[in-house]
């Protein structure tokens, strides 16, 4: 569920208390709730985007989602506030497919980058011959999707992903246990990367912290923070050339940018 008109100073805890209420508690509410009910009414996670004055709430079932949209749309977050009441609506599948990291994966960034890298690596005399390779069985690379043989090519031997956390405690726990739990829509992509690439680097950051917490690969872990001011001008061509420091959870970096980021990181430690 997408929720708009969220006050800039709203906290994660306040939203949890609000979205886990019952119909009766909303009807009888005369003072702010001090704690969230034990029954979360299907709420799995809440992602607060303060700068955009909105939040995304994930539910365990369509029934819980429909209930929340009906219950909380137009219901004030703060009972004595003059702020506009929340606007709540269910996110359609097409909304999800055209937003965040899903949009990045649907733009063919891997295919276009692979072709560009191949052009830069081979002599001009080979360009004409290259056009004939795709017609020969066994010699062609499938470009139909990122589930194809494309990501098994040497150009994708080292891949880079940015992973975001809501708080530092989750990052410290991951460091202690060597386990990181990502969002469901990232799992298949990361699993595929680990199976097809020789090396996968994960770069961790807490939301609104102003720095990267650390990075990890299958063999190396670095937890020396990297301030975002060190990479102010670093941009990611695979995300419409946006600044790397404002990446979303699960964003993949163009490999050359990923290597540049690691080089900057290692030079500061």
UniProtKB/TrEMBL annotation:
The entry's keywords: RNA-binding
Cross-referenced Pfam families, in alphabetical order?
A: YTH
Q: Name one GO cellular component term.
A: nucleoplasm
Q: Where is this region: Disordered?
A: 108-140
A single GO BP term for this record reads: mRNA splicing, via spliceosome
Basic and acidic residues: compositionally biased ranges:
114-130
Q: Where is the RRM domain?
A: 1-92
Decide whether keyword RNA-binding is in the record.
Answer: yes
Q: What is this protein called?
A: YTH domain-containing protein
Q: Which organism is it from?
A: Malassezia yamatoensis
Traced from the root, the source organism's taxonomic lineage reads:
Eukaryota, Fungi, Dikarya, Basidiomycota, Ustilaginomycotina
């Amino acid at each position: 569920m997408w929720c708009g008109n969220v006050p800039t100073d709203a906290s994660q805890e306040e939203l949890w208390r609000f979205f886990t209420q019952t119909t009766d508690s909303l009807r009888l509410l005369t003072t702010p709730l001090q704690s969230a009910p034990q029954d979360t009414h299907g709420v799995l996670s809440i992602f607060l985007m303060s700068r955009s004055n909105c939040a995304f709430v994930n539910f365990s079932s369509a029934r819980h989602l429909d209930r929340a949209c009906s219950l909380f749309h137009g219901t004030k977050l703060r009972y004595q506030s003059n702020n506009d009441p929340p606007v709540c609506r269910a996110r359609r599948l097409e909304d999800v497919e055209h937003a965040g990291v899903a949009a990045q994966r649907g733009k063919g960034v891997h295919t276009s980058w692979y072709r560009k890298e191949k052009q830069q690596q081979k002599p001009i005399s080979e360009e004409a011959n290259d056009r004939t390779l795709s017609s020969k069985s066994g010699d062609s690379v499938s470009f139909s999707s990122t589930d194809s043989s494309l990501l098994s090519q040497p150009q994708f031997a080292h891949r880079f992903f940015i992973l975001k956390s809501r708080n530092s405690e989750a990052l410290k726990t991951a460091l202690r246990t060597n386990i990181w739990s990502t969002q469901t829509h990232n799992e298949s992509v990361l699993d595929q990367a680990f199976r097809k690439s020789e090396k996968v680097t994960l770069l961790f950051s807490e939301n609104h912290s102003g720095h990267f917490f650390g990075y990890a690969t299958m063999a190396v872990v670095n937890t020396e923070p990297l301030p975002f001011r060190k990479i102010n001008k670093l941009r990611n061509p695979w995300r419409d050339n946006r600044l790397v420091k404002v990446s979303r959870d699960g964003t993949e970096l163009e490999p050359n940018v990923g290597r540049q980021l690691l080089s900057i990181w290692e030079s500061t430690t």
